[in-house]
């Protein structure tokens, strides 16, 4: 399988899972079927559009062909029809988000490298691609994006991006490297969620709600 | 009237109504005169800037000439001075938003087609142009964007974009087609609001507030 | 010191203070160390990325070299370790934000002029650069951006941008002009905060909370 084909496959798999995460979050927020589809599309296409805007690809790839729209829309409709029990919605969102983070991180990094971006830039753009869609989803639902939350998130994405970049540098075969990178991201992210890996919070903090009131 | 002149006219009309919707929402959120002008400007210019970024037009058209700034600023100031009674503010926002959605959808689609984008891409960019400004306005005021809410929104925009694209394909005269497209968007959107057309919500949903707490 | 060197110096100083404002706001919102670093980075790099996207610089400058990442990350970590007392956090955020607004406004305007943008466009892009990072920070923390709040903000940025543009027009020496522009922004902004300069709010407004409920 050529690297290009691989990218397309990875990207569409990412479109599906990110669309699922967006749709599940929308169902959870009690949006109607249109809102579920729109949020599924935004979550799925957001990262890739940000990537193309940063790389100067005009118009963005994901706005060019039917499949980029059909896959997320179908996924969102399926989620709307057969979403899991409410109690499991949050877990389902986090799982789909983790897989999407992995797939978009590696496809974003590989795409940036294919466009001739230096490795350092490619890793940052890959992370932005992976994190962007989910951040957009959370912003639209007025939640603090996962990337700012407790569990390891950006680091997981960084790990996958570095793997892809290393493979590119050392001319390793693209397919296993890319798959390994995506798998690493998903694994780190899920283990972090499962083991509730938390990073320290600054000490000596007053009551937040009080602080919020001042902020308003 | 040439298609180019038409685009300019439509765009400035859209700037005015979207600025009005942003200014009204800002007044409603008790922002001061500066906030009202800034939000009016952001709502008015946001969609077009997103459109130009997606099309690769640098710098964005709306950052190039005085009128693009004068029209929304004047509109916002007029709204600030003579805004309707508070009770009618929400209705006024929705009305201005619907007209802006129509005008920016068709001007965005026509602009994309004029830049040689394929019809499919042009429709998506037109919808993004129409939806973008209002979404930015709602995000900045920490509201869930209208496009994710109950009533038909994205579909109305899609209808207008398709009309413009069809007219372009069949070489119909630009002016009536564009006006018809915008009118269709506004009509669908207002009827949806008026008749409270709602799409189904997924069943078996638990209490949202409880869900929100988990999410925080 | 050449104008180019000056731009780099100003930009990195801006990166540091904006990163500090983002990190302080993140500490205040009880985010963990990862969230603090990510928000510091987003606040610091956001404005410049928006500027480069508007100018068509691909990939954005701030994604190209280590320093752009090291300076904000180090600043965020230092803030996380030695942040001031909670009671002073809000004041610290506002102070760092004001300095960052000044530095990014002038560097953004100068960069746009260096890219051949007309003065009018350069001023708008400079303001967007200065306001963008902080707006992103507030959006991610679900706060209404400072630029929409009570005290003079966009006008302070505009003043600095105009100074830089005038200096460019009249061929004044770049260094003093740019420094003066940044100082003017910071001065206006801090005086506005200190004297609580407020602009009028539209009269005849009902109770906001009631309005909010309708909006939900």
TrEMBL record, chains A, B, C:
Tell me the superkingdom of the source. Answer: Bacteria
Read off the InterPro entries from this record: Gly_transporter
Q: Which residues form the Glycine transporter domain?
A: 9-83, 95-168
Q: Where are the transmembrane segments?
A: 65-82, 94-113, 119-140, 152-168, 174-194
Q: How does it sit in the membrane?
A: Multi-pass membrane protein
Q: What GO cellular component is one of the record's annotations?
A: plasma membrane
- Per UniProt, which keywords does this protein have? Cell membrane, Membrane, Transmembrane, Transmembrane helix
Q: Where in the cell is it found?
A: Cell membrane
Q: What is its main location?
A: membrane
Instruction: Report the PANTHER family cross-referenced here.
Output: INNER MEMBRANE PROTEIN, UPF0126 INNER MEMBRANE PROTEIN YADS-RELATED
Annotated family? Belongs to the UPF0126 family.
Q: What is this protein called?
A: Putative membrane protein YeiH
Q: Which organism is it from?
A: Herbihabitans rhizosphaerae
């Amino acid at each position: 399988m050529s690297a290009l084909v691989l990218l397309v496959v990875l990207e569409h798999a990412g479109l599906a899972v990110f669309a699922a995460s967006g749709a599940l979050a929308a169902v959870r927020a009690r949006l109607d079927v249109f809102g579920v589809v729109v949020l599924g599309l935004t979550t799925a296409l957001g990262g890739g559009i940000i990537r193309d805007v940063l790389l100067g690809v005009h118009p963005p790839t994901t706005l060019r062909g039917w499949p980029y729209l059909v896959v997320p829309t179908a996924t969102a409709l399926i989620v709307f029809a057969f979403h899991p029990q409410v109690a499991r919605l949050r877990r389902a969102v986090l799982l789909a988000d983790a897989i999407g983070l992995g797939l978009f991180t590696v496809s974003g990094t590989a795409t940036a490298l294919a466009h001739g971006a230096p490795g350092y830039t490619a890793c940052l753009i890959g992370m932005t691609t992976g994190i962007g869609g989910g951040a957009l989803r959370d912003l639209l639902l007025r939640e603090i994006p996962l990337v700012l939350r407790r569990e390891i998130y950006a680091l997981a994405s960084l790990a996958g991006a570095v793997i892809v970049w290393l493979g590119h540098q050392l001319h390793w075969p693209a397919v296993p490297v890319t798959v390994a990178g995506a798998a690493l991201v998903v694994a780190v992210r899920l283990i972090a969620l499962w083991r509730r890996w938390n990073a320290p919070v600054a000490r000596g903090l007053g009551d937040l709600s009080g602080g919020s009131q001042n902020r308003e």
